Structures are given as C-alpha cells and as structure tokens.
Amino acid sequence: MAKVFVSTVLNAPAARVWARVRDFNGLPGWHPAIAESRIEGGDPSDRIGCVRDFRLRNGDRLREKLLGLSDYDLFCTYSILDSPMPVSNYVATLRLTPVTDGDRTFIEWTAEFDVAPEREAEMIAQIGGGVFQGGFDALKRQFGG
C-alpha cells in the first residue's frame, strides 16, 4: 500500500482555515485544479456518506465519498469511488491542528492507496506534489505561510 504525507503551516488561525476547507463540495473555491463540483442527490455537503462528483480543469472527472468530518478535531476523510488515476482502495484525510505560537495552522493531507508497483512512485508524486501541494500552495496565497 502506497502512502502520501504532505504538510505545511499557514499564517492564519485554524478556525479561519477550517471555515475555508470544511465544505466537502467547496474544492473549486480554493483548489486551483478543480473546475466544478456537485454533491449527488442533493445531499448536504457535510453529511457522512455524501458523494461529490467533480471535474478537474483538465477535463478529468472524479467521484469521492465523505467518510468522516469533525468540526471538533478539524478533519475530513474521504475515499475515491471513481477516478482516471490507476489507484484503488484510496482513502485520504485533510487535518488541521492549531499552532498556538502565532495563532497559525499546521495542515496535513495524507492518503493511502493500492497501485501497481511500477506506478507507485509516479502516483505518490502526482498526488502529493500535484494535488495536495497544489492545494496548500493556493491556501498559502490566501492565508500566507
């Protein structure tokens, strides 16, 4: 099983960052790779089990299911249902931790998934360096980091 871990520190309080990233349907508002998103069946975007169907700016479509969301512990966990990436059993978590020194936020994005051995390095780089870091870079532009 492949694992990805990417983290950074943002110069904003965790409550403010959480307000920005909490919405499971809100990726187009903060991640530059996401063109549009919708929650299937009109479910609320914070209902465990809801499914988001979104399109990347390159035209690829993905479907992901919300597995966990905590306003107390500041995390969101989801799985990929459909994706053009050659991965399976994909589960990821976006987690925020308050940094009391300077009222900043430590933010981490992790994922575990199965992938063919010959594609593992490529997928770790694409997900970690492209998807996760791309999102963090956008948040840094908004909040500083």
Overall description:
The structure is a single chain. The protein has 145 residues and is an alpha+beta fold. The protein has helices at 14-21, 120-143; strands spanning 2-10, 34-39, 51-56, 61-70, 75-82, 87-99, 104-115. Strands 1-7-6-5-4-3-2 form a 7-stranded antiparallel β-sheet. Strand 3 (51-56) and strand 4 form a beta hairpin. The longest helix has 24 residues, at 120-143. It is globular. The mean pLDDT is 96.
Concise structural overview:
The chain is an alpha+beta fold and 145 residues long.
Which percent bin holds the helix content? Answer: 10-25%
| Spatial sequence of strands, sheet with the most strands | 1-7-6-5-4-3-2
Radius of gyration from CA coordinates: 15 Å
- Supply the helix-strand structural class: alpha+beta
Please, what is the average pLDDT? 96
How would you sum up the major sheet? Answer: 7 strands, antiparallel
Count of extended strands: 7
- The best one-word shape is globular
